[in-house]
Amino acid sequence: MMATDLQIQNLMDSLTNAVLNNENDVATILQQYEGVFDNVGSLLEVIHRLHATLSIQEPSKSFIKHLKRDLFDAESRNRTRSFVLPGRVQVAAGVAAVAGVALIAARRYLAEDTSEGAEVSVLPQ
Fold it and tell me: Which phi and psi angles does 86 have, rounded to 5°?
């Protein structure tokens, strides 16, 4: 039987979890995946070696302090600067927005008055 990648991944996940949880009986796991992968013994040995070799490392206080400072400095540099527009620019923008809405409303109102929705030009030609 040819094993799929998913079956092999599930087998490796189950074996790794068993090693991490210090479960010595992997025979039940191997029975569940019987015939999926032939070289389980060598891979199980690699999992045990990695578990014995790799250990949890805590970062030093100096590293944590430098990392926090770097992250907060980068965040403050990336903030967008907000600024207030001068009053006359705000008024001009408001007038333009109102005129735009009025133009759209007028076109719709005039389009409803015509038969079959024929186009009506708002501006004289």
Answer: -60, 155
